[in-house]
Design brief:
The chain is of the alpha/beta class. It folds into two domains: 5-229, 3-Layer(aba) Sandwich (Rossmann fold), CATH 3.40.50.300; 244-325, no CATH class. The protein contains ten helices and twelve strands. Helix 2 packs across helix 3. The radius of gyration is 25 Å and the shape is globular.
Length: 326
């Protein structure tokens, strides 16, 4: 096994059986994949596709029906490997009457950390996950998003080399989600290996280097995110300050090459980026709003689409009106 391969599964299969030993569900079917050192690897798929089962097999919490799992070059059943692993389950099982500081101190004791080391590590992690103001509140008073944050801090208490995250952004608002994504990228920059299990496409696309797409327990796709998302038979041109005459010339060239001009439009942002921009702008300039004229925007979209469909047609698009309300 290569030294840079942290997790490897070989023909891994898992069958859940009922009380009588009859096959109930085949959660995984001959899964072969490798997770390399220092990368964020995403397990993507709908509910019931085998993502959580794969995580539990890596941890040694489940035993495979056939095949094997190797972690740090050792069998997943070797419990000593877990000293180098941090795990955030889909539902965090934490003691509700402990504070954030007491929770991290408790889990630090499980790794035989000294009292001084536990205090230092807990303070760093509480600040890292943004719970400094709630460090002495009992967890029963925490929201779902705050519980996910302290759960992530608990998973990092032992400064692990491999971090397994099962739906880490579940229950978080867009700002909390962005914070968790930034933390995952920070862990990667520190040289740690992260396996992210999620069914949220935006989470996986933003932070993962490579992904494996599972469906009904089978591996359907494996590769780098940028490569998998690239559409090979289409070309995207982004041009600023293009005149109407130049646009007509480009459209004429497309027709001469017997190609199809699918769309000419302005680039768009994502809903997440728009939301975060609005929140940050509101914090910087409270009381200011920007109201867009939706009818003007609809007319702009119609004109843009018509221009793309009519061969050789020219003309600009009216700009959407903006009204600032102070």
């Amino acid at each position: 096994m290569a030294s840079d391969v942290i997790v490897e599964t070989r023909n891994l299969s898992k069958v859940y059986r009922d009380f009588w030993g009859r096959q109930k569900v085949q959660a995984l079917k001959a899964l072969d994949l490798e997770v390399h050192r220092g990368e964020v690897f995403g397990l993507l798929g709908p509910n019931g596709s085998g993502k959580t089962t794969t995580i539990k097999l890596i941890l040694g919490l489940l035993f495979p029906t056939s095949g094997e799992v190797l972690v740090f070059g050792r069998a997943a059943s070797d419990v000593s490997k877990n000293e180098r692993i941090g795990y955030l389950p889909e539902e965090s099982y934490l003691y509700r009457f402990l504070t954030a500081e007491e929770t991290l101190d408790f889990y630090g004791r499980l790794f035989d950390m000294s009292a001084a080391e536990r205090r230092k590590r807990a303070a760093e992690l509480i600040d890292m996950v943004g719970l400094a103001k709630a460090r002495r509140r009992q967890l029963r008073e925490y929201s779902k998003g705050m519980t996910r944050r302290i759960g992530l801090a608990q998973a990092l208490i032992n400064d692990p080399d491999l971090v397994l995250l099962d739906e880490p952004t579940s229950g978080l608002d867009p700002i909390g989600t962005r914070h968790i994504k930034d933390l995952i990228l920070r862990l990667r920059d520190e040289g740690k290996t992260v396996v992210l299990c999620s069914h949220l496409l935006a989470d996986v696309q933003d932070v993962c280097d490579r992904i494996a797409i599972l469906h009904n327990g089978e591996l359907k796709e494996l590769g780098r995110v940028d490569s998998l998302l690239k559409i090979r038979d289409e070309t995207l041109l982004r041009i600023g300050g293009l005149s109407d005459q130049a646009r007509q010339q480009i459209e004429a060239i497309v027709q001469q090459d017997h190609a199809t001009l699918l769309e000419v439009d302005h680039p768009t942002t994502t809903l997440e980026d728009l939301f975060l921009k609005i929140v940050r702008d509101s914090e910087a300039r409270p009381g200011r709003r920007v109201v867009r004229d939706s009818r003007a925007e609809e007319e702009e979209n119609l004109v843009s689409k018509a221009s793309a469909q009519n061969d050789g047609a020219a003309g600009g698009s009216p700009s959407a009106e903006k009204k600032e309300v102070n």
